[in-house]
Amino acid sequence: MHPETDPERLRERAVAALTTARARTAALTDAVSDHDLTAQHSPLMSPLVWDLAHIGNMEELWLLRHVAGHESMHPEIDPLYDAFEHPRAERPKLPLLGPREARRYAAEVRGRVFDLLERTPLEGTSLLDRGYVFGMIAQHEQQHDETMLITHQLRRGAPVLTAPDPQPPTAPPPPASEVLVAAGPFTMGTSAEPWSLDNERPAHVRDLPAFHIDTVPVTNGAYRAFMADGGYREPRWWAPEGWKQIRSHSIEAPLFWHREGGQWLRRRFGVIEPVPDGEPVLHVSWYEADAYARWAGRRLPTEAEWEKAARHDPATGRSRRYPWGDADPTPAHANLGQRHLRPAPAGGYPAGASPLGVRQLIGDVWEWTASDFLPYPGFRAFPYREYSEVFFGPEHKVLRGGSFAVDPVACRGTFRNWDLPVRRQIFSGFRTARDA
Fold this sequence. Notes:
CATH class of the largest domain: Alpha Beta
Order of helices and strands: HHHHHEEEEHHEEEHHEEEEE
CATH architecture of the largest domain: Alpha-Beta Complex
Strand order of the largest sheet: 10-9-8-11
Number of helices: 9
Number of strands: 12
Largest sheet: 4 strands, mixed
CATH superfamily of the largest domain: paralog of FGE (formylglycine-generating enzyme)
Number of domains: 2
């Protein structure tokens, strides 16, 4: 359970989360020219200026209209920024707000929201209870900040973002490449986390057979061994849809990799550099992760296995908020919040390890699991069906754990992400498992 229940402390937490998100939004949008803000850098992504105004529009909708009861500030733009109204590929053709107008709109909404937050009791309704709706909006903005960072990675041109590299591991590597997670029940999901989203709820008991799971994510070096062994040329490792995908698109390596003079290089936010063997592999689809696991004689962990490895404490029988305990993440625990623009070397952050010694379950790379995105028993859509419910089904696979691009406010041991199994532009990696 999150330790914070005092209304004033929750209000301070909401202000801090909203302020942190807006500072990141400004950094991502101020780093490029107005031309780059309005350009579409990939048909998979919106123009950055769309994300900027959409953030303001979502905030206005839920905080100023639903909570405060205000009329729409600009009803003519509402359909433009409805994420379900227009596919991303079509958004550049819409009469969007320009960079200056989008910034002004988002700033005006935020000013009114801070006034609202000062005088609004954080109780009385499900939306307001413990500041839920303010936390929801902070998470929404951070999720779009991650989306905008993906757009920066897809953007061609000179580098515009900088950040220090993560520090190399300060502790010896884990003593084993995998750990055994004993059979038995554990509590999955949450009913107590104040800002948990609907698909994380409710807490429920799952009983799993014993399994082994990797102590660190699969590295570039390990993945290159799969490539060198003909992994992309051997159909027996691939799900039929994955084999069709890599053949039709001539895929032979993770996205952004290319071979030059016998060496594998990658493009990372405009920088061309050698692929570092010791870093978790990044920008692989679910199909690629699944194929590697089959080649290695292993499999992807299920979502429940991943969460048990991350949260279950065998000594007490309880599920922690995070692998290391209930305390909020610090830079010693995990690579989060865009402090760095890459994953840390595998084996890093020993302070963030689970009770069984599994490392980097939070941060660095989103980890594909074997599971389809489905509701938990007792799921209730809240506060709107379009956040989770419309995505449930076998079309989407679950990712867990967050990445270096995820802010701590949008990353918990219970947090669930999902995407299509073909997706590669996201900051996705994986670890493997096997039956005991």
